[in-house]
């Protein structure tokens, strides 16, 4: 196992600076852009965003659990971005939230979103639309900027806070949504983030995430659905491999299998890496994390949405209404969401 304070990890951090800065720059830029863009409802991926959010509500709703009935519920959001999951934390009754991301612009945006909703006034009138859709946060939150694939959480938090935050650890749930795949460039990075997850979690706590499906990628290879430019996808999303993927779909090394990912109106050919799920599962065992749940997005939605339909925010549900009057994704969106899976691991012990 890696000792994260060694000279070795400092060297690899320097070597990895390139990809980190590409990713950081992309999310910094996106944060500024989305502020300027205004209405999100006109986005071509509006329905897909709502669908992905519904998936995260379901995953967190089913798997974030407090230690004991009166114990505070502490939630650690790794690669928290602009704080898109803060509403979900209110939904699952979190008491304390900690968000960390490498993009300083995103972290600032997350903090501002939190502050606005923390201070929000909710009219008590049950007829009022605002009271029904209210997003007032009843939890405390703190945010930090740092590279979670090269530094330990104590190292990151030390730079941002002074010791007081230690009392919040170990936490009940660690979440890493739509981000883990950036770490799969090297084994060192993956082990650093898994160390961060495992050391942060209490026994019985959950590690909840969403990543691209290696099974989906393999099936694209086996069905020969790649173009000559080593690309698959549709008008909404595409995946372009850096190297020709192996014909049998089994990559020589589980790390460093790079592709550029494009999602209309969201991600502009940003490099990410295949996450071979079986490698992830076995590595997690090394860190005392046992697989509890793994499901692709369409199945999560179809199996769980009946339980969540009445619980989810009206705007979110309305935002998934299809042309045929049903709810969910349609057309090109179907394949774009099938690219992802949700997973849950539990920290051993009791
Ligand atoms: N989790 C959020 C969500 O679901 O809305 C944001 C997901 S966004 C697709 C990916 C995030 O991963 C970005 O905010 C990016 O800055 C962050 N990220 C990428 N590499 C990182 C690293 N090494 N350390 C911390 N955050 C990182």
Task: Explain the overall architecture.
The protein is an alpha/beta fold and 350 residues long. Helix content is 39%, strand content 21%. The protein contains 13 helices and 11 strands. The protein has a 7-stranded mixed beta sheet, with helices on both faces. It has a 4-stranded antiparallel beta sheet with strand order 6-7-8-9. Strand 1, helix 4 and strand 2 form a beta-alpha-beta unit. Helix 2 crosses helix 5 and helix 3 packs across helix 11. The longest helix has 21 residues. The structure holds S-adenosylmethionine. The site of S-adenosylmethionine has 20 residues, from helix 2.
Name the features:
four-stranded antiparallel β-sheet, 11 strands, seven-stranded mixed β-sheet, alpha/beta, binds S-adenosylmethionine, 13 helices, disordered N terminus, 350 residues, single chain
Taken as a percent bin, the fraction of beta residues is 15-25%
Q: In terms of quaternary structure, what is this? A: single chain
Report the radius of gyration as a whole number of Å: 20 Å
Bound molecules: S-adenosylmethionine
Give a brief description:
By secondary structure, this protein is α/β, with parallel strands linked by helices.
Give the topology.
Layout: H1 7-15, H2 17-37, H3 46-63, E1 74-78, H4 86-91, E2 96-101, H5 104-118, H6 129-132, E3 140-145, H7 153-160, E4 171-177, H8 187-200, E5 201-212, H9 214-222, E6 231-233, E7 237-241, E8 258-263, E9 267-273, H10 277-286, E10 289-296, H11 297-308, H12 314-318, H13 332-338, E11 340-347
Parallel strand pairs: 1-2, 1-4, 2-3, 4-5
Antiparallel strand pairs: 5-11, 6-7, 7-8, 8-9, 10-11
Helix pairs in contact: 2-5, 3-11
The structure holds S-adenosylmethionine.
């Amino acid at each position: 196992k890696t000792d994260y304070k060694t000279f070795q990890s400092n060297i690899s951090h320097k070597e990895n600076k390139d990809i980190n800065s590409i990713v950081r720059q992309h999310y910094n830029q996106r944060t500024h852009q989305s502020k300027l863009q205004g209405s999100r409802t006109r986005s071509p991926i509006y329905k897909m965003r709502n669908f992905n959010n519904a998936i995260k509500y379901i995953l967190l709703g089913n798997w974030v659990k407090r230690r004991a009935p009166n114990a505070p519920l502490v939630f650690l959001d790794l690669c928290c971005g602009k704080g898109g999951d803060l509403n979900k934390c209110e939904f699952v009754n979190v008491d304390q939230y900690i968000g960390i991301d490498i993009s300083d612009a995103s972290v600032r945006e997350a903090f501002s979103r939190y502050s606005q909703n923390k201070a929000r006034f909710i009219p008590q009138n049950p007829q009022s639309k605002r009271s029904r859709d209210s997003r007032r946060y009843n939890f405390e939150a703190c945010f930090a900027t740092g590279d979670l694939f090269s530094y330990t959480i104590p190292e990151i938090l030390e730079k941002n806070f002074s010791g007081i935050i230690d009392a919040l650890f170990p936490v009940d749930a660690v979440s890493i949504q739509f981000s883990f795949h950036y770490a799969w460039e090297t084994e060192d990075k993956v082990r650093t983030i898994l160390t961060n997850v495992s050391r942060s979690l209490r026994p019985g706590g959950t590690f909840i995430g969403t990543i691209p499906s290696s099974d989906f990628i393999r099936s694209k290879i086996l069905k020969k659905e790649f173009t000559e430019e080593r690309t698959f996808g549709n008008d909404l999303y595409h995946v372009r491999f850096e190297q020709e993927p192996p014909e049998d779909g089994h990559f020589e090394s589980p790390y460093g299998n790079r592709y550029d990912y494009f999602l209309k109106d969201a991600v502009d050919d940003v490099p990410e890496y295949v996450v071979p799920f079986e490698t992830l599962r076995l590595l997690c065992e090394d860190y005392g994390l046992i697989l509890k749940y793994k499901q692709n997005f369409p199945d999560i939605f179809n199996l769980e949405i009946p339980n969540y339909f009445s619980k989810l925010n009206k705007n979110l549900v309305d935002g998934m209404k299809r042309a045929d009057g049903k709810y969910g994704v349609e057309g090109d969106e179907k394949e774009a969401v099938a690219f992802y899976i949700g997973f849950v691991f539990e920290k051993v012990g009791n």
